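User: I'm preparing a small set of examples for a lab meeting where we compare how different chains pack in three dimensions. I only have the primary sequence for this one, and I'd like the structure in token form so I can line it up with the others. Please keep the answer compact; I'll paste it straight into my notes.
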Amino acid sequence: MTSVVSVIDRGGVRWVYLDAGVFTGLVETLDEAIRYRLSTSADGGPTGPVVLAGPTCDSADVLYEKQPVHLPLALSEGDELRFHSAGAYTTCYSTVGFNGFDPMPTMVVGGSRT
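Assistant: Understood. Below is the structure token output for the 114-residue chain.
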């Protein structure tokens, strides 16, 4: 589970920045090799295409730019975004402290946030 840090219009394209990205557990999204099913705390209204990006200053910390995902138009800072079926290995892929960011928390179905 991640949180939206900001939503920005860049040249007519909506970018959603998250508190997790390629270097904090989602490295398998590089080159859009894996496309996770996503849901948000703002689901239920109209949607539109967005590019997802992580929190670091690294130009490679971009998820789903070639084929943007469709997320709620009402999505805003502080909303939750869930990557479904990310699996146990995302924890192993996390780079601890990359650019000062902690890896994203692990959620266990039926469990608690760690």
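A couple of notes for your slides: The first strand starts at residue 2 and ends at 10. The chain is about 5% helix and 30% strand.

User: Perfect, thanks.
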